[in-house]
Amino acid sequence: MPKILSAVACNLDANILAACLPLFEESRVEAIEWSFDALYKVKEVPGWFRELLSAFSDENRLIGHGVFFSLFSGKWLPEQEAWLSHLQQTATEFSFDHITEHFGFMTGEDFHHGAPLNIPYSSSTLNIGKDRLKRIYHACGRPVGLENLAFSYSLDEVKRHGTFLEQLLEPVNGFIILDLHNLFCQLKNFDLDFNTLISLYPLDKVREIHISGGSWDDSAAAPDRSIRRDTHDESVPPEVFQLLEMTIPQCPNLKYVVLEQLGNGLQSTASKQGFYNDFLQMQEIAQQHNYKEGNPFLPLERLPIITGAAIEDLRLYQQQLELSAILENAGTYAEAMQQLQQSSLAHSDWKIEEWEPYMIETAVKIARKWKK
To answer: Coil, strand or helix: which one is 102?
Structure first.
């Protein structure tokens, strides 16, 4: 049986490409994950980059990762329609093994600016998510997956996330990208142990694993603790490699492990060497395990073409806009908490009464960082 494939998240970024070059030269990279929707500012993709993508596409070793679709936006947006058209065109040019997207909705009025944040786990958001995933499948004709979220407001959300993912993916027989640094954030921010949390995920649905690094953030709301952030700007911590070793044997349909790091964290010679070392350690772990040939994540039956209007929940959309405005503009986390209590989110499916103050504070920092 073939070994699990070791991949890099490789985009059109000089620092990322420079860090990946030694791995390419040594023929270590077995697959590429490409954020196909991150080139919106690029008027023309260089021919040499297309050749790189095509080389992996020809070997069925190219996987696509979306960033900006905003899966759970309560209103169907023109930008989402354009995103699907772009995906359909791109999937015609390149042969993706599968396509994935982030969980959550994007803060910020500009479609390409914002951070993915959690949504209420309700029948409305479930129906919206199912509708959007079907549209993604019809645009690409490939298996579709979702990445688990690094951020939650409450312990209840953390515990319900795996089941909600499974319910979302059922109509398209989709799969999960299990991002282990995202899991690490949840473990640390909510004082959970690995076995408790991992048991809440349908691990037979995991086809891809991400590993990455992040950062610690001090909290005024909880001075006795540090908040783990999924900033992707540091090397992979030892704890995440330990999670990788413990998780792989529990994922019978795993095919890819992917190393991620943002270009702004790969500017120095030392950081590039760290990236190289992280890949080798990841690959050494992955090569100890096999993957099953075949693809268990295509729809079990032919999905009818979607001809009707997209499912919407305009009340949810207004609440999302209200939440984004509060997080982006509140002077302090205490001010954000006060405004939330006076908002339409109070006593609703959002369950803001259960939100941890230190996670509201973190959400404010995330939204401000991405605000343009």
So the answer is: strand
If DSSP states are collapsed to H, E and C, what string results for 259-276?
A: ECCCHHHCCCHHHHHHHH
| CA angle (318 as vertex; 328, 340 as ends), nearest 5 | 50
What are the DSSP calls for 24-73, one per residue? HHTT---EEEE-TTS-TT-SS--HHHHHHHHHHHHTT-EEEE-SS--TT-
Residue type, 321: L
DSSP summary character for residue 307? -
Instruction: Indicate whether 262 pLDDT > 70.
Output: yes
3-state secondary structure of 356: coil
User: What residues contact residue 69 under an 8 Å CB cut-off, 6+ apart?
Assistant: 37, 80, 83, 101, 102, 132, 136
Over the stretch 197-220, which tens digit does the pLDDT of each residue have? 999 999 999 999 999 999 999 999
The stretches of the chain forming alpha helices (DSSP H) are: 14-25, 47-58, 78-93, 123-140, 155-169, 180-189, 194-198, 238-247, 269-286, 314-329, 333-341, 357-370
Cα-Cα-Cα-Cα torsion 362, 175, 90, 33, nearest 10 degrees, comes to 60
- C-alpha distances in Å from residue 369, one per residue of 54, 227, 328, 364: 34, 16, 9, 9
Distance between terminal CA atoms of the chain? 48
At 249, list the tokens. Answer: 């044997």
Give the integer Cα–Cα distance in Å for 288 and 6. Answer: 12
- Whole-model pTM over 0.90: yes
Q: Which one-letter DSSP state was computed for residue 290?
A: B
Q: Which has the closest alpha carbon to 148: 124, 128, 169?
A: 169
